[in-house]
Design goal:
Radius of gyration: 19 Å
Strand content: under 5%
Strand order of the largest sheet: 1-2-3
Distance between the termini: 45 Å
Number of strands: 3
Number of helices: 9
Order of helices and strands: HHEEEHHHHHHH
Amino acid sequence: MIWHKLNQLRTKIIAKPQIILGIISLVLIVGMPIGINNQILAQAKTEETYEEKLFETALAFTLYFEGGFSNHPADKGGRTYKGILQTEYNAYRRRRGLPPLDVTQMSDLELMEIYQGYWDNSKSATMHPALAVVMFDTAVNFGIQNSITFLQQALGLPQTGIFDGATQKALENGNNRNTALQMINERIIYRYKRVQEDASQMAFFHGWLVRDYSLWGYVDKLKDN
């Protein structure tokens, strides 16, 4: 019965990635370096600019869906602000020798540093643009270890949650848009299982699917390298 209701709800969800206003386009216009002496410097600057724009592209999508403050009674994560849990923010402040602070008081600089950690530790910068965006959003939404598990599922690997040599090798052949879309598919399957196992999570089900289907449409339109 619950599966039938979930499928009915799924058919009502229409992904509208075009509503995500202010998303940064992943189009890099790079001028040719003038002179041999400037070539290496220009290449380094180009790569830095590319990664920065890719990170901004991923962050724009994630922040759109993370929104502001949340403290829903059914949310097992508890108090959350812009996708950052209070417990996570406490740990961040503690590592820097700072006193605890309400997560709603988190500065933009702190937010960016925390999100940069998700970006770096999920190895998103090494991936195809579509996969980088999906990997980053999954790391924020599910945790870094779980994002690796989703990646391993999409690559047809054992799900260890560890970015090991086998994962890296499989990624060399699967570093593409298809793997990104398969990761989203695995996320959707997980959402259905989650609400089947815990009915209290139905409060978030519609929002989860809107996020997943919007992510699908979003990365499907990103340009390749």
